[in-house]
Each structure stands twice: as structure tokens, then as C-alpha cells.
Amino acid sequence: MNWAFLQGLISGVNRYSTAFGRVWLSIVFLFRILVFVVAAEKVWGDEQKDFSCNTAQPGCHNVCFDYFFPVSHIRLWALQLIFVTCPSLLVVMHVAYRDERERKHALKFGEGCRTLYKDTGKKRGGLWWTYVMSLLFKIVVDTTFVYLLYYIYEGYDFPVLIKCQQDPCPNTVDCFISRPTEKRIFTIFMMVTSLACILLSFFEVLYLVGKRCKECISSHRSRSSTPRRRQTAIGSGTTLVVNGKYEMESKSHKLPNKDILVPSYNVAMSYSGKG
After folding, report:
1. Under a CB-based contact definition with an 8 Å cutoff, are residues 143 and 196 in contact?
2. Do 174 and 54 touch, CB atoms closer than 8 A?
3. What is the pTM of this model?
4. How large a percentage of the chain has pLDDT more than 90?
5. What is the CATH number of domain 3-225?
6. Are strands 229-234 and 237-242 parallel, antiparallel or unpaired?
7. What are the tens digits of pLDDT across the range 29-46?
8. Which residues form the Connexin N-terminal domain (predicted)?
9. Segment 66-100, tens digit of pLDDT
10. Domain-by-domain residue ranges, the chain?
């Protein structure tokens, strides 16, 4: 296993994750991948070799093992870890796609041109949808595998004694699982970590959706609180639209506030008589 590649991959995913995403990544790496690689494979390494039945009938041992263990826990968990970590790579690839667009845009229009994105790693637009869809995909994958493990093995328990009646067994034979208690503990541990990852992904979806709704409401309120002014020419005046109300502003000069001296009626008549 290439740990350097895995470390670089995890650091890239961690850079564009929220707080919930970082906790989810820590649980997946420490409590699922490391436990799977270091301990779980060794616990299930002897599941078929040490599965014994109290009969020497040829083929009975293999048939009984296939009936009670149709799919190995190790292979199911390996598929689960592969499918649940792939969506995080989509986010990293989307950010890399944005970086490449910025690079080509700068080469085409010059270094001082206007950028396409304020921050290529900021979860806005298509990257926001990619991140949310990756979280939903993780929830579906983990939930599906938890249910599959319960459905295939009819629970998460490992009985000490198994009664097998499959052909070509001559009669009902007793079969015994190797280290059932240890297998039960690791199975429960892996299921608990899977449920914890499901809850973290669900809370992260709620956090992202709630934050986005809050930003949309705040931007809508800021736009509605800002007075809108529009001028349209009507005749000799100008109509101002202020907060939805129409006000008329005349183009003619306004009279000053001071009193204007007007000639009296007698003086005006005397001047007209002289003329």
C-alpha cells in the first residue's frame, strides 16, 4: 500500500472539506482503513481454513461454509471503503478542473485579466452541488452496505455452533466458526464507525444547505432594503421612483424662499396712465 499517495490524497480532500468533513475523514482513515488493514484482515484470514464440521463427507465442509458465509466480511468492507471514498475524489477533481480553467484563461487574456473564480476551492456554484451530491452518495453507500451485511448474515452475531443440513451432507452436522467472539467484536466496531460516518455526512448536508439558505435570505433582504432610484423623463419634469413611490421633480427654476417685492396697484396704474 502506497502511504505517501494516500497521505497526499487525504490532505487534498481535507483542504476543501468542512469541519464535519474533516472529522468524517479522520474516522474513515483511523478507525476504518487502518483497522481494516492492520487487524481485520488477520482476524478473517483463517475463516475457511479453520471452519470445521463433524463429518468427513466430501464436499459437506465447502457447502456449509458457502451457505453461512456467501460473501466474506473483508471483501464487503473493502468494496464499501472503495465506494465511500471515491466521491471525495470528485471534489478534488472538480477543484483541479477549475484551476486548469483559470490557467488557460490567464494564458489567453494575460496575467492581469479578470479571474473566473474568486477562489477555486470555495464551494459555490457547481462545486457546491458536487460536494453535496458526494455526501448524499456516501450516505447511500454506507447505509446500503450496513443493510446488506445485516441481511446476508441475519444480524451481526456469530454463533459458536452452526447446524448444517445442506447436500451432500449425510445428515444434520455441527459446524464451528473460528474465533467467533473476536469476529463479532470487529463486526460491531465496523458497523458503529459506519453509522457514525452516516450521521456526520447527514449533519454536513444539513449544515451546507442551511448555510446556503441563510446566505440567500441575507442577500435578498439586503437587496430589498436598498432604495431603488430610477429616473424617467415625463414632459418638462423628471419622475423619480424612490422605494416604489413616484415623485415629480420639475426642471424649471424654483423661486427663492425670500419674499419678492411686487409693485403696488396704484403705482402700476400711474405708470400705465403716463404711457
Report:
1. no
2. yes
3. 0.71
4. 12
5. 1.20.1440.80
6. antiparallel
7. 888 888 888 887 777 776
8. 42-75
9. 888 888 888 888 899 889 888 878 887 877 777 78
10. 3-225
